[in-house]
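Run log // design_07
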């Protein structure tokens, strides 16, 4: 039977360790474990992770291939695993021991399945306050459904883009259900981003076509930037993990506003 809270249940264990008088290095290792669980979740790998835990693949920490650019991250993963291996031997209860084992398995899963580069990219995306993470983008719902049906492990609970709209992938293997409901995660993100980074346009355009051409012409765009299109703010988003670029109107966010008085016009 699927455990839908497998990746969220261990987070309080990390939180309790974080609240203790910890050194910056220890907190970094705790944060890495937290992000490892989140990475597996947002990339929709819960079923894949459950299968991994049932095999001998969860018993040792392997060196991942093709990850030369993330040598420091590999070392931090190893140190985080060493920390939680020690904590596993001194838990407050058997239940906590089991949760710590899930954390250890998550760290080993990323390394053993060769996802060090993908995890490093995810960490950079989060550090840059990038838009909600997506695992794929499609022009139509039919394309998205065809892609999902071809996958042995559909990315359950992950986000995808259909056009410029966020959708959740809902996959219930037990009930044989696969759905793509609309998600409001982008609306929430835009509202929070506006508060933390009040819109200030890096470029201004007369229409959406001009802005799209500009965004596509950039060799390496920022993960996000504010632009003005016909006097209205848009988010120029770059999803580096899938090499996808798009423009989201700020008006999608709650309590959104158009360009303020005195803002530069195209």
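design_07 sequence
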């Amino acid at each position: 039977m699927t455990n839908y809270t497998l990746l969220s249940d261990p987070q309080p264990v990390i939180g309790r360790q974080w609240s203790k008088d910890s050194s910056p290095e220890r907190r970094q290792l705790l944060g890495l474990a937290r992000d490892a669980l989140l990475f597996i979740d947002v990339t929709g790998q819960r079923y894949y992770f459950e299968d991994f835990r049932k095999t001998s693949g969860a018993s040792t920490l392997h060196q991942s291939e093709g990850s030369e650019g993330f040598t420091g991250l590999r070392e931090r993963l190893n140190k985080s695993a060493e920390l939680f291996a020690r904590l596993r031997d001194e838990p407050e209860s058997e239940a906590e021991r089991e949760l710590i084992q899930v954390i250890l398995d998550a760290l080993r899963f990323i390394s053993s399945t060769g996802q060090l580069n993908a995890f490093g990219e995810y960490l950079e995306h989060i550090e840059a306050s990038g838009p909600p993470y997506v695992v794929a983008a499609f022009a139509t719902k039919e394309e998205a459904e065809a892609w999902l049906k071809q996958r042995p492990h559909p990315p359950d609970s992950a986000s995808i883009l259909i056009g410029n709209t966020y959708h959740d992938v809902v996959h219930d293997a037990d009930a044989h259900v696969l759905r793509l409901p609309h998600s409001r995660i982008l609306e929430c993100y835009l509202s929070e981003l506006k508060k933390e980074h009040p819109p200030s346009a890096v470029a201004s355009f007369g229409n959406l076509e001009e802005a799209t051409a500009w965004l596509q012409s950039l060799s390496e765009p920022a993960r996000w930037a504010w632009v003005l299109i016909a006097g209205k703010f848009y988010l120029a988003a770059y999803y580096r993990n899938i090499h996808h670029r798009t423009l989201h109107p700020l008006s999608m966010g709650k309590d959104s506003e158009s360009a303020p008085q005195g803002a530069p016009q195209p």
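The longest helix spans residues 24-42.
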